[in-house]
Specification:
This is CGNR zinc finger domain-containing protein. This protein is mainly alpha-helical. The protein has a single domain, classed as Orthogonal Bundle (Jann2411-like fold), CATH 1.10.3300. Helix content is 47%, strand content 10%. The chain has 6 helices and 6 strands; from the N terminus they run H-E-E-H-H-H-E-E-H-E-E-H. The strands form 3 sheets. A two-stranded antiparallel sheet has the order 1-2. The radius of gyration is 18 Å and the shape is globular. The protein starts with 20 loop residues before the first helix and ends with a helix. The structure holds zinc ion. The site of zinc ion has 7 residues, from loops.
Length: 193
């Protein structure tokens, strides 16, 4: 269990992930499980989200189905990050398919190389996700990107705790809720003969 001392106490509930990883976090959070809002529901809702992230608006219903499927396999990977587990097989398959479809370009610089997304709309989205996940896996920031341990939340957050053991999107909301649930369970157990 997370020691209270490891948790940031004064930061806002939403600590942005570094660089482009924040984009991946935003992508995973296009579905708000608790509020029942889906920003990739249809081409109109997508167009609004795409504009906020400088992606072209072109997307068919089939594209959005693919995008939602990729997003949910990423959510599984972010859950696996709590255990520092490798990428789940379905996530690997979805990322491979996204890379194959969007074909980001490999660009060299003086000290290395990176992937550059191409195209627009869902292709640009996939290219950006693929490039960012690849870079984050390489630099070690990936394992800090997680989804909230609460099943009815699963909001993506960046774990800034020193020990990398953060469980909740927000200690003041989900963390306290979990604590109260445990307290109720214990209280309930005591009442049972
Ligand atoms: Zn949460």
């Amino acid at each position: 269990m997370t020691a209270a001392a490891d948790l940031p106490t004064t930061t806002s509930p939403v600590t942005p992930a570094p660089g482009e990883l924040e984009f991946v976090r935003a992508f995973v959070n296009t579905l708000d499980i608790e509020a029942h809002t889906e920003r990739l529901a249809d081409p109109a809702s997508w167009a609004k989200w795409a504009a906020e992230h400088d992606l072209g608006a072109a997307a068919t219903a089939a594209d959005l189905r693919e995008a939602r499927a990729l997003r949910e396999t990423l959510r599984q990977a972010l859950l696996a990050n709590h255990d520092r587990a490798p990428l789940p097989a379905e996530t690997i398959e979805a990322l491979d398919a996204a890379a194959d479809r969007s074909r980001p370009a490999l660009q060299f610089s003086g000290r290395g190389s990176h992937l550059v997304p191409r195209g627009s709309g869902v292709d640009a989205l996939f290219g950006r996700v693929v490039a960012t996940v690849a870079a984050a896996l390489a630099d070690g920031t990936w394992q800090r990107l997680k989804v909230c341990a609460s099943d009815d939340c699963r909001w993506a957050f960046y774990d800034t705790s020193r020990s990398r053991t953060g469980q909740w999107c927000s200690m003041s909301i989900c963390g306290n809720r979990a604590k109260q649930a445990r307290y109720r369970d214990r209280a309930g157990a005591r009442e049972q003969p």
